[in-house]
Specification:
The structure holds two protein chains of two kinds. By secondary structure, chain A is of the alpha/beta class. Chain A has one domain: Peroxisomal Thiolase, Chain A, domain 1 (3-Layer(aba) Sandwich). Chain A is built from 14 helices and twelve strands. Chain A has a five-stranded mixed sheet, sandwiched between helices. Chain A has a five-stranded mixed sheet with strand order 8-12-11-9-10, with helices on both faces. In chain A, α8 packs across α11. The radius of gyration of chain A is 19 Å and the shape is globular. Helix content of chain B is 36%, strand content 25%. Chain B is built from 13 helices and 14 strands. In chain B, α6 packs across α7. Chain B is globular. Chain B starts with a strand and ends with a helix. Classes of the chains: A alpha/beta, B alpha/beta.
């Protein structure tokens, strides 16, 4: 069965104090419907990716909430998998279509974070970690700093090379009007930014954001040329870092990527564009290696040399600006990544368009790597 | 009716702490903190000073000026650090000043604009003939939790203004702009305020200051270029400079009011102290544009015109070493532990 991604919509990401989650959802969904060119009544089910509405907003039951808000009299589900909630929602949507339960479904990723105090958000995000990590006072910048230190020790990766991830993603975001940060930064600015968790500095870290994204998939043959979802794969690993066998890779990413490449019948060298989960600069480095784009220890230098920047001949990574610069409304991120691939593969990405892109990959990670979701789209 | 400021007084505790010393205590980069806030040091109360003693110092200085004051019919004290939740600061201050009993006493609380609300209320009482003259005091030993961003700026100071007839500076017009915007708050019984980070900027400070300012410019038909000085609430060194530019005021018009550069943010005394610093140097016929800001949120805007009598009080204040420039120069430094002791944190 072919599954087509026929429409996508993304709201502006950022500190959207005047915009409620309901309005964010409506905007993203309306844009996706318009892009798909189908009537709302065609949507048979809704899959909502969200992580924090319960703990921060006291609001659960998001399936019914957004089904009502979007005017869908349809089955609706909330999927939670920390920062991989959006990717997991799409995976479940794909499975529901593959099972012939539905033909056309919508996936909505939505998160509202900036209305809450940063310390409350940091505490809520640690819901994705283990009780031991919480008791020890760890936060995600700290956990990823451990991964960065391990990578630096093992492969002589430098802080300047890691800074290259942020420089590239801010450059891409400067071409994306929906990105939270459209300013370009230099390696020097990254290196001089406030230290958050050694060796990660402020400009190595993705922000707290509000935003929503929507994607519509269908097994019906679309009226217009649309990308196919040729792989949707999920893998998990231990919840906490302490139980991992290695701190220089995310095993869940490796497993999910291997499965996805098998499903799609392609290899890493075939991929033209990738949206990877750069919650911290080290995370993009790990992603590029664990997916198989680069051998271990080679990704950071390659990114710093501009090998995956827009305009390069091979793979281009995080044209949206990634989590770092486009923003990271956690439940929306996984859906936004796929929405970006759809825009790129259909030639609608404007100034950040990768010419002739045919094959795109999205990698969405939950926690410190306990969940990984890989999608591959082909046009 | 010609109503306005007939006398004024100020007080700045002499203790200071360098912002770099606070930053060092928390292992922050001092240069980065000083650069981002634009403040190098802030005033700190002595161990036995509070909002009442600060209010008294400014009020004494105000009443000591030997001008025609009329009968003082009201005393309004604006602060967000009133020592008591129940039991007014104003009556303690009034009793010690010897105002007698026939006056309206009131404590005002509206974050950093409590006192400017009092200035508008008092001007209304005088204009309507209910009282001859009323004293308004802005006083704060500003609270901030150790390690909170507010710790770098929260300061202590006071300013008092006597509002009456035949003034040194006439109140030409005023406006207010208010909304329910919870950017900064402190619940009853809670020691330190909370705030919503960057939300305190655009939707809070800038929206309200601009709102009240634009209302006043429209109401009076006066253009920024016709005004000699401007004064804005100063939560840090950047916001007043930014908002002045947005409204069309120059750095020269703003500079004399920037008390924040020397002592930080004494909350409700911030813009009143800025006004006093400007009155210390203003000349007859010059206009002063002033906008306060209180979280929660609201702004009061004022247009003052300075009268010839200003010279007398400037001379008096200078002789008594009470000019802002003189008071701010009288200082001694505390280390971080001394700061914690003086603000009753240890």
């Amino acid at each position: 069965m072919n599954i087509y991604a026929i429409g996508s919509g993304v709201t502006k990401f950022g500190e959207l104090w005047g915009t409620s989650p309901r309005i964010l959802a409506k905007k993203a969904f309306a844009e996706a419907l318009d892009d798909a060119g189908i009537p709302k009544g065609r949507v048979e089910a809704l899959f909502v990716g969200n992580m924090l509405s319960g703990i921060l907003g006291g609001q659960e039951h998001l399936g019914a909430l957004f089904a009502q808000e979007l005017g869908l009299n349809a089955p609706a589900f909330k999927i939670e998998g920390a920062c991989a909630s959006g990717g997991l929602a799409l995976h479940n949507a794909v499975n529901s279509v593959l099972s012939n339960q539905y033909q056309t479904v919508a996936v909505l990723g939505v998160e509202k974070m900036t209305d809450h105090k940063p310390e409350d958000v940091a505490t809520a995000l640690m819901g994705a970690g283990t009780d031991v990590e919480r008791m020890s006072g760890a936060t995600f910048p700290g956990l990823y700093a451990i991964l960065a230190r391990a990578h630096m020790a093992e492969y002589r990766t430098t802080e300047e090379e890691l800074a290259g991830v942020s420089v590239k993603n801010h450059f891409h975001a400067s071409l994306n009007p929906k990105a939270q940060f459209t300013l370009r930064v230099t390696v020097e600015q990254v290196m001089k930014s406030t230290l958050i968790a050694d060796p990660l500095k402020l400009l190595d870290c993705s922000p707290i954001s509000d935003g929503a994204a929507a994607v519509i998939i269908t097994s019906r043959k679309p009226a217009k040329k649309s990308p196919k979802v040729v792989a949707s794969a999920v893998a998990t690993d231990t919840l906490g870092l302490a139980e991992r066998e290695s701190l220089t890779e995310l095993a869940a990413t490796k497993k999910a990527a291997k499965k996805a490449f098998t499903l799609a019948g392609v290899s890493p060298s075939d991929i033209d564009i990738a949206e990877v989960h750069d919650c911290f600069s080290i995370a993009e480095t790990l992603a590029l290696e664990d997916i198989g784009f680069y051998p271990k220890g080679r990704a950071a230098g390659a990114v710093a040399r501009g090998e995956v920047t827009l305009g390069s001949k091979g793979l281009v990574v995080n044209t949206s600006g990634g989590l770092k610069a486009c923003g990271h409304p956690v439940g929306a991120t996984g859906v936004k990544q796929v929405a970006e691939l759809i825009k790129q593969l259909t030639g609608k990405s404007g100034r950040r368009q990768v010419k002739g892109a045919k094959l795109g990959l999205a990698q969405n990670v939950g926690g410190s790597g306990a969940t990984a979701v890989i999608h591959i789209l082909k046009i | 009716m010609n109503v306005g400021i007939t006398s004024y007084g100020t007080y700045i505790p002499r203790h200071r702490i360098k912002i770099e010393d606070i930053a060092k205590a928390w292992r922050k980069n001092p240069e980065e903190i000083v650069k981002s806030l634009g403040i190098a040091e802030k005033s700190v109360p002595a161990i036995d000073e509070d909002a009442v003693t600060l209010a008294l110092e400014a009020a004494y200085a105000t009443l000591r000026f030997p001008g025609e004051k009329g009968e003082i019919g009201s005393l309004l004290v604006g602060s967000e650090s009133h020592p008591y939740a129940v039991n007014p600061t104003s009556t303690i201050v009034g009793e010690i000043l010897g105002l007698g009993n026939n006056y309206l006493a009131g404590d005002l609380e509206f974050a950093c604009k409590a006192a400017t609300a009092g200035m508008q209320l008092t001007a209304g009482l005088v204009s309507s003939g209910q009282i001859d003259s009323g004293l308004v005091v802005a006083t704060d030993t500003a609270q901030s939790k150790p390690h909170d961003a507010l710790e770098y700026t929260s300061a202590a100071a006071s300013a008092a203004f006597l509002i009456g007839k035949n003034p040194l500076a006439t109140l030409l017009s005023f406006t207010s702009y208010s909304s329910d915007t919870p950017d900064f708050w402190r619940r009853d019984g809670i020691r330190y305020p909370s705030h919503a980070g960057r939300f305190t900027g655009e939707p809070a400070y800038f929206a309200h200051v601009m709102g009240a300012a634009n209302l006043l410019l429209k109401k009076t038909g006066i253009k920024p270029k016709d005004i000699k000085y401007c004064v804005f609430h100063m939560p840090n060194a950047k916001f007043p400079r930014d908002v002045a530019g947005r409204l069309g005021f120059s750095q020269e018009q703003l500079d004399p009011s920037l008390v924040v550069d020397f002592i930080g943010n004494p909350y409700s005394a911030s813009s009143p102290l800025g006004l006093a610093a400007v009155l210390d140097i203003a000349g007859s016929g010059e206009m002063i544009f002033m906008v306060s800001y209180g979280s929660g949120a609201g702004s009061d805007a004022f247009l003052w015109e300075v009268n010839p009598g200003i010279k007398k009080i400037q001379k008096f204040r200078k002789e008594h070493k009470q000019l802002f420039s003189q008071q701010v120069a009288n200082k001694s430094y505390l280390d971080y532990v001394g700061y914690l002791k003086n603000t009753d944190k240890i």
